[in-house]
Amino acid sequence: MDGHPSDRLVAGVLTGALLTTVFVVGMLYFGIPAEHHANMAMRLGLPVALSCVLLFPLPLLQRTVLRERRSQFILDEDLNAMLLGRVIGVIGGVALGVTLATEML
Q1: Can you say whether the dihedral through the CA atoms of 38, 26, 10, 99 is positive or negative?
Q2: What is the reported pTM?
Q3: Nearest Cα to Cα of residue 45 among 100, 53, 65
Q4: Domain extents in the chain
Q5: pLDDT tens track for 10-41
Q6: Under a CB-based contact definition with an 8 Å cutoff, are residues 96 and 21 in contact?
Q7: Which residues, other chains included, contact 105 with Cβ-Cβ below 8 Å and sequence gap of 6+?
Q8: How far apart are alpha carbons 30 and 90 in whole angstroms?
Q9: Which run of H or E residues covers position 20?
Q10: Which of these, 2, 24, 32, 58, could form a disulfide with 7 (CB 3.0-4.6 Å)?
């Protein structure tokens, strides 16, 4: 069991950064969406949106709607730290993904 909310913060940063980096590099490598029909904002916005759809629903639901059903060992501070870490991870993952994509492609 995690002993401190900072553990959840670091885990959230690493999870968000890794997932977003994989999405950014993969989608830029495969050209999704096609270059003819999308500008760079859309080509970076789609991986960020997919990462957010995968990373944020469960902690947000546990923080709000499913508060009574979550484990008694998960505190609000833990969920807040996890959400903050995932936000920081998504931002860092975009930067890392663009850097890797420009080096590889």
Answers
A1: negative
A2: 0.89
A3: 53
A4: 5-104
A5: 999 999 999 999 999 999 888 888 777 778 88
A6: yes
A7: 28, 29
A8: 20
A9: helix 5-30
A10: 2
